């Protein structure tokens, strides 16, 4: 979670990418 927060702060990840990652984790 911390790493994702850092990426968002630095704008290295978009909201869509974050959502995709979140959904992928839920599927596991």
From TrEMBL:
Q: What is this protein called?
A: Uncharacterized protein
Domain of life the protein comes from:
Eukaryota
Which lineage is the organism of this entry classified under, starting from the top rank? Eukaryota, Viridiplantae, Streptophyta, Embryophyta, Tracheophyta
């Amino acid at each position: 979670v911390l790493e994702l927060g850092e990426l968002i702060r630095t704008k290295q990840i978009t909201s869509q990418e974050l959502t995709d990652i979140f959904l992928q984790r839920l599927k596991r």
